Amino acid sequence: MAAKKVAIMVDEMYQVLEVWFPYYRLKEAGLEVNFVAAEAKKQYHSKEGYPCISEIAASEADAGDYDCIVVPGGFAPDFMRRNADVIRFANDMVNAGKIIAAICHGGWLLCSTPVFRGKKATCFMAIKDDIINAGAEYMDAECVVDGNLITSRKPDDLPAFCVAILAALGK
Q1: What confidence tens digit (pLDDT) does each residue in 81-130 have?
Q2: Structural domains of the chain, count
Q3: Count of beta carbons in the 10 Å neighbourhood of residue 163
């Protein structure tokens, strides 16, 4: 049986813990993890300057190849949602019924998809109105799982967030 595959989205000004904590935790569990961004083989920097090199361009990413998408926070989701290929990939993942996981400001990208409609979700409080306007019922909780949608608020919630992702992936 092939290993499950996860796409972690990256862009400039990503929140370093929200990229690297899931990356290493998911790899530790035996999952294949790729960094997907607007451009392949480009170095993106966290808010603190920590580099991350993307592996796959969103224009080349195929939702059929992945079981889960993880959208970290920081200011990166605001950059992500400016790219049509990134939005297309996120929508393809949602429309294919894949596991959709977002933490902190990650919901900003997902507001460009229908994933929040009729679902319970959480996020960093500053974008609460955005996810509500995208159709979510906001909950102030460490981790909210509603079907295939997994959301958390902030870096402190990463342990619960990763446990929920792994459970959804059968790990």
Answers
A1: 999 999 999 999 999 999 999 999 999 999 999 999 999 999 999 999 99
A2: 1
A3: 14
User: What range defines the domain where residue 154 resides?
Assistant: 5-168
Q: Is the dihedral of CA 13, 126, 115, 146 positive or negative?
A: positive
Q: What is the CATH number of the domain that holds 30?
A: 3.40.50.880
- B/e letters for 131-154, b = 16+ CB within 10 Å, e = fewer, are beebebebbeebbbbbebbbbbbb
Q: Is 105 among the catalytic positions?
A: yes
Radius of gyration for the chain, computed over Cα atoms and rounded to the nearest angstrom: 14
In this structure, what are the phi and psi dihedrals at residue 110, rounded to the nearest 5 degrees? -70, -15
The catalytically annotated residue of 4, 25, 105, 128 is 105
